[in-house]
Write a structure and sequence with these properties.
This protein has about 325 residues and is mainly beta. The chain is built from three helices and 19 strands. The protein has an eight-stranded mixed β-sheet. A four-stranded antiparallel β-sheet has the order 2-8-4-5. The protein has a three-stranded antiparallel β-sheet with strand order 14-17-16, with no helix packed on it. A hairpin with a 2-residue loop joins strand 4 and strand 5.
């Protein structure tokens, strides 16, 4: 029988620096199935508009000296976890004054949680460490009023450990291969490292207001000078196929925005919005919605557009991922 336990590495540690990193020694002898994370930060006393928490955590890394065993940004880690387990992301964003934003994710070292065939055996390394990097000023400088308040970033981390389980001797390594700024047009060729076998390739687009297929037309993987081509797919078709395979995600977000404001969501697809205005007699809808962006429409009790009110809005969004993935099949 598999026995499991959670090893807490740190719990809601408040970080004095708004831009820094924390290194935690990983001295666990039993196989680690996953590392879990939770982060939070507090808004200023007026609001914190268009400054989403997921862009605060810039890197989650597992290192052994100069060897990098895992390295992802928070959005990358959360998206990869969704493709592995299909669970809704832990993401509670609010732009309200003095409110706390909370988010969480995990890095799985197997195909799923408690995978006996793939897990991280830390005893195989000399100095394994977890490194978490953050920057509260990544989008806007800290502020006592209209951004994240200084000194409010908190982090928690834990390890999901398989007690007494024989070490499998292999794990799935998640790391970014390359990031680049695309040109207006043309081809981008990338030589992939061949020191390890691949389980999945993921491609993410960072372009506000554009779907992935609007910027990347086609994806092709070629081996031995086109002797073997595992896939050559149009991105638009592949993206639609993956939406059918993996489904949609639900994101809860509380906005502080008024009529005519264009708001943005991290999931960069066509969202389906369910909005509520917490003010009696007011209604909210949207004029257009595309690629994670939506134009808010706010009307008063008589149906006229309200251009002066800027009160919190709750918005639920159902949307496909902003990620296109090529996933290997496995038993």
């Amino acid at each position: 029988m598999l026995k499991t336990r959670d090893a807490v590495l740190c719990y809601q540690e408040t970080q004095a620096s708004d831009k820094s990193s924390k290194t935690i020694d990983l001295d666990i002898v039993d196989p680690v199935s996953a590392l879990g994370f939770e982060f939070e930060a507090t808004n200023g006393t007026t609001n914190n508009k268009a400054n989403p928490l997921p862009f605060v955590v810039t890197k989650l890394e597992v290192v052994d000296g100069s060897d990098v065993l895992a390295s992802l940004s928070f959005p990358q880690a959360q998206a990869l976890k969704f493709y592995k387990d299909g669970k809704q992301p832990q993401l509670r964003e609010t732009e309200d004054a003095s409110s706390v934003q909370v988010m969480g994710t995990a890095i799985l070292f197997g195909r799923k949680l408690w995978d006996k065939d793939f897990a991280l055996d830390l005893t195989k390394f000399r100095n394994p460490q977890l490194k978490i990097s953050w920057d509260l000023t990544n989008i806007r400088a800290v502020s006592a009023t209209t951004a994240f308040a200084t000194g409010t970033f908190k982090l928690s981390a834990w390890a999901k450990v398989m007690e007494g389980q024989p070490a499998p001797g292999k794990f799935l390594m998640a790391k970014e291969i390359e990031a680049w700024t695309g040109a207006t047009s043309g081809d981008k060729r990338r030589e992939l490292p061949v020191d390890y076998p691949y389980h999945m390739l993921m491609l993410r687009l960072y372009s506000r207001g554009s779907d992935v297929d609007e910027c990347i037309t086609k994806l092709k993987l070629t081996c031995d000078t086109d002797k073997f081509i595992p896939f050559e797919r149009y991105t638009k078709q592949l993206d639609a196929e993956l939406a059918q395979l993996f489904g949609n995600v639900l994101v809860w977000k509380k906005l502080s925005a008024g009529h005519g404001t264009t708001v943005w969501f991290e999931v960069n697809k066509e969202p389906q919005l369910n909005m509520q205005v917490p003010v009696l007699g007011y209604n909210a809808s949207y004029g257009w919605c595309w690629s994670g962006n939506a134009s808010l429409l706010v009307a008063n009790a008589s149906g006229a557009a309200d251009t002066t009110r800027s009160c919190p809005r709750r918005s639920r969004k159902y949307a496909s991922k902003s990620l296109t993935a090529i996933r290997a099949s496995y038993e």
